Amino acid sequence: MDDLKAKWLGAIGEAADEASLEDLRVQAVGKKGEISLKMRELGKMTPEERQVAGPALNALKDEINTALAAKKTALADAALDERLKTEWLDVTLPGRDRRTGTVHPVSQVWEEVTAIFADMGFAVAEGPQIETDWYNFDALNIPSHHPARAEMDTFYMHRAEGDDRPPHVLRTHTSPVQIRSMEAQGAPIRTISPGRVYRADYDQTHTPMFHQVEGLAIDRDISMANLKWVLEEFFSAYFGTSVKTRFRASHFPFTEPSAEVDIQCSWEGGTVKVGEGDDWLEVLGSGMVHPKVLSAAGVDPAEWQGFAFGMGIDRIAMLKYGIPDLRAFFDSDLRWLRHYGFPALQVPTIRGGV
Ligand code: DAH
């Protein structure tokens, strides 16, 4: 009995995995296992022998079953420990810093301008950046010989050899969108047209590509007074403080009368502050749309009239957000973009109650 016990308990103790443990179970206490066969031999014994051997065999069988169960649990625990070791994950490790992008000041201001004019009932109209010279110049009352054409530093598109139609241009201003939207919608109309424009010019305040927003309001009795109200309302909402404007008589081929508009500002320690002080800063050109321009766009000047204006988006972005150099806007320098850019979900800072 002691030999049997030593043999099976020893083997169970050494079993390396669940499969060999199962083999041992079959060999020891299975139907034809050694212990079961021994139990069958009890029948051949004398009653005295059986009285000793019976309980001893039963006890041994119990002991073996207990050892099998204990070993099975131990093997499963060891397997789990092993798995946990390989699947170990350090949840205290700090996450990797992932840089989020920023909204470019031009995009931000574009949104702000659109939101403010939308509140005043203006819809957004867009036009192509590559224009015909008719939309960019002629329809706006700038004929070929006009000095304004020369002053615009226009980029001309290439024409194929032998094609002597006038070349297309990269639009020099957003004013051609006035023509396109009046052609498309007729009057009355109230639109703004933000977009890219191009001129061959480069210094601290000029880049060959920049942004303008055009404004247009045509109805039966729109006047310069409406223009002044709309612009003052716009600047006050945009800069978040009430801003005075100054209208200076000027000249544009596409407006009559024409005015350049300055906004009130102060210069202190080399920085501009809008809405205070007694200096003035020019920010846009405007006027009453010239009858010839209305006619060119198919709107009858005997029946309709209204104002237009054109303003630099980059310029008012520089003013509001204290950005000194225009060229940096388009350098794509990540340090600049992180510094002057806006979080994606930042609500535009505009004054309510327009
Ligand atoms: N198109 C002019 C420019 O690019 C700006 C401008 C002036 C637009 C007067 C207008 C306007 O609509 O009425 O400098």
How would you explain this protein's 3D organization?
There is one protein chain. The protein is of the alpha+beta class. It has two domains: 2-86; 105-129 and 171-343, Bira Bifunctional Protein, Domain 2 (BirA Bifunctional Protein, domain 2). It has twelve helices and ten strands. Strands 1, 4, 5, 6, 7, 8, 9 and 10 form an eight-stranded mixed beta sheet that branches. The protein has a two-stranded antiparallel sheet with strand order 2-3. α1 (2-14) packs parallel to α4 (47-86), α2 packs antiparallel against α4 and α3 packs antiparallel against α4. The chain is rod-shaped and about 135 Å long. The N and C termini lie far apart (102 Å). The model has no long low-confidence stretch (mean pLDDT 92).
